[in-house]
Amino acid sequence: MENIFHHIINSFFLLTCLQVVKSLRISEFIVPRNAFEGSDARIICSYDLEGYPLYTLKWYRNEEEFFRYEPKAKEPYMYLPVKGIKINRSNSTHILLSNVNKFTEGSFACEVSTDIQFQTLHQESHLTIVASRSSDNLSTYSSRNVITVLLLLQLMVSHQIIKSHFSVNLNVGNS
């Protein structure tokens, strides 16, 4: 009797392991770390369903849903209005956000769910919007970049690459 019970437990464990091996996974998830204000940003959520049908792919920004792809629905693509989100193009794995701005910034997440098995995976990453490239405002540059430029100038002067005398007056931190 104990042998039969042991056999049943082993069989159950083996079947459970086989189910785990054949499961949903997100194969590629890309949200750019930074995007310039006014530019486009492509976000990607590719998935491997291991043979199961897709139920939905949902996109969120700061936990607010803005896009849904549900292949079996009458209208498979659903766009939900969210401030700062303008979708230029989309398909079952990619979205092109257009004309991003400070309201676009946030935590972007994709959620993939399968039909039949009802497995769901969720992955997220943060997108930061950087001031426009054309901005002349010194505050858009990091202090690390300013220090790097100053060190390069110091090196150039000390090696007499720049022979003329000049002075640099930076009023950093003072208004």
TrEMBL record:
Residues 37-128 form the Ig-like domain. The keyword Cell membrane does not apply. The keyword Cytoplasm does not apply. Residues 1-23 form the signal peptide. Keywords: Signal. It comes from the Eukaryota. InterPro entries: Ig-like_dom, Ig-like_dom_sf, Ig-like_fold. This is Ig-like domain-containing protein. It comes from Tetranychus urticae (Two-spotted spider mite). The lineage of its organism: Eukaryota, Metazoa, Ecdysozoa, Arthropoda, Chelicerata.
